[in-house]
Amino acid sequence: MGTATLEELVDSFLETRAEAESFPVEELTAFCSANLAGKGDDEQSRKRLNRDIELILEGHSSLFYRAGSGQCFNRGAFFKGARFKIRPSALEIKEGLLFYGARFAPFCSEDVFADEYNLVSPGSELKYQPLACPVQFGQIAKLFQMLGRSTMIDCIVADDAGNYQILQNTTAAEKALVKLTAFNFGAFYQKHHFSEGDAVIATVQNWNTGSFTVEYASQSSLDDQSEISAWISDFEEGLIQAYEDYGEYLEIPDQIAHAYLCAFQQGHDLRKRPFLSLEEYPTLMRDITIRRDGPEWTLVPVDEPTVSGGYDNYIPEDEPEHDHSPECSCGHHHCHPDDSKDGKPLAAEDFSASSGRIDSLDHLLEDLSAPLDYTEIYAMIQDDLANGQESAGEFVRKLIDFMGVHFADDAQEAAFYNFVEECWEDASERFDPVIEETKTPLRTRLLELNSRRLELARTLVERYRDSKIPKKTVDRMKDFHARILNTLGLLNADRSLPEGAEYEQLELRIGDIEDDWDEFEEQQQ
C-alpha cells in the first residue's frame, strides 16, 4: 500500500470490516504490520506498533475499544437493528410532537444533529418532519437530563441561538419559553389512537446517519414487570462495568452506549428488549444514580463516595448552567457569556458578597472558564513542593497568571486564593520526598506537555476566531487532555509507584503521549 501512514492503514482495514459487529485486533495488527513501510522487526518496534494501534482505536468515535482488549466492536454494526422504547409525554401527545431529548443520542453518531435524525415508519420513505417549536423549558427539561448538563444546554442553545439569552435572563428558568426541534408526530398519534402510557419503538437502521424506523406499542404490550425488572438489572450491571472501565470520563449518552455493549458481553443483550425508556429509567434507578456535584453530570454506582443523589434531586430550575468549551458536546460550535444564577434554588454563593460562584473549587473553576481542573492544579502544587517552593501565595499568583482568568470581583478572587491555599496545605501534609523522588521527573514532563497543550489551544481559538475549529482537531485535543489527566491522577495518589517492568510501562506511556503530541503539534503549524 505504498507509503500509507498507520492511521490510513487502520482506516483502510476498518472499511473492510464496516459490516462486521466486531473483529479481532490481531487481524488489524497483522494487516498494518504487513503494509506499514519503514517499520522495525524487533520486539520494541512491535510493542510500539501495538500501542499506536490501540491509541488510534481508542480515539475512534465509531468504535468500542479499550486498550488491552482482544476484540474491537463497530458501533454501527453493533446497534443496527437495535430497538429501544420512547414514551412520549402528555404534552407531546397533546401537541402532536416528539422531542429528541436524550432518546436517540446513545444509538447514533455524535456527529448527527437532532434536526438531521431520519425518522420513518417501516416500509415508508416519508420522513417525520422536524419543526422548530416554542415550549416552556420546565416542561421538557426531564426529557433531556440523560444527555448530561453541558450537552443538554449545548443542544438547546444550538437549536436556536436566542435560547441562551432567554435562559440567562429569566428569573424563573422553568417558565422560560425556548425554541427546540421536535418531530411532527400528529398523524402517528392519530393513526394509533395514541394515549399516555403508550410507546414509540424505535429501531436503528443506520448508526452513522441517525436513521430510525418508528412503530407503535401499546402500554399493555410492554407492561411486563418481570421483564422491566430484568432490564433494569442487566442495564445497571452494564453501567457499573462501564464505570469501572472508564470512570467518569464518558458523557452520559456514551455511558449508556457502553452499557449496552457491556451487558451484551455479560450475556444480556438489551438490543431486542425495549421494555423501559430513558425518560422512565431515572425514576426506577436501583444501583445507579446521577452525580450532579461536579462540572459534568455522570452515572455512577450508588455506593460511590460523594454522589449527589438520584432522580428525586432533579430540579428543572437548576438546568441553565453550561460548561464553556471551544466545541460543544452536541457538535455545534458557539460562544456565549457567563452563566446566570437566576432561577436557581439558594446555594452557598447566594449568601456571599461575590457575584460569581464560590461554593467549591470545581464550581469556581467552571465559572471562570479556567483551562485547568483540580487534578492539574494539585499536580502543579506537588511539582512546586518537590522543587523547593515554600510559598502558597506565590504559587497562587503564578497559577492565576498561567490560567489567564479574570475574577468577577474581589470576593471571588479571595475565595479562589482560599481554596488553592487549602489544596497547598493538604498536599504539603501528604508530601513524602521518598515517594516523590520517582514521581517528580514524570510529573514535570506531563506538566510541560500540558503547558504546550494550553498554548496550542489558545493559538487555535485565535486562528479560528471567525470559523469553526475542525472537529477532528478538537477531538484530538480532548483525547490528549484525557490522557494527561489520567496519568497525572496516577502520580497524584499517595502511594508509591510500581517498580521494574510496571514503572517502565508508565515511562513508555508518557513517552508515547509526548511523541504523539510532537507529531500532532507539527501538523498544526
Question: Please, could you describe this protein's structure?
Answer:
The protein contains 18 helices and twelve strands. The protein is an alpha+beta fold and 525 residues long. The chain folds into three domains: 68 residues; 246 residues, no CATH class; 173 residues, no CATH class. It has a four-stranded mixed sheet with strand order 4-9-10-6, with no helix packed on it. A three-stranded antiparallel sheet has the order 1-3-2. A three-stranded antiparallel sheet has the order 5-8-7. A hairpin with a 6-residue loop joins strand 2 and strand 3. Helix 13 packs across helix 17, helix 16 packs antiparallel against helix 17 and helix 17 packs antiparallel against helix 18. The longest helix has 31 residues. About 10% of the residues have low confidence.
Secondary-structure blueprint of this entry?
Elements lengths: L5 H11 L5 E3 H11 L7 H16 L4 E2 L6 E4 H5 L3 E4 L3 H6 L1 E3 L18 E3 L9 E7 H8 L4 H11 L2 H8 L7 E8 L1 H6 L7 E8 L4 E7 L7 H22 L5 H14 L22 E4 L6 E4 L59 H7 L6 H13 L5 H12 L6 H21 L2 H31 L7 H22 L8 H23 L2
Parallel strand pairs: 6-10
Antiparallel strand pairs: 1-3, 2-3, 4-9, 5-8, 7-8, 9-10, 11-12
Helix pairs in contact: 1-2, 10-11, 13-15, 13-16, 13-17, 16-17, 16-18, 17-18
Quick synopsis:
This protein folds into three domains: 6-73; 80-325, no CATH class; 351-523, no CATH class. It is 47% helix and 11% strand. The protein is built from 18 helices and twelve strands.
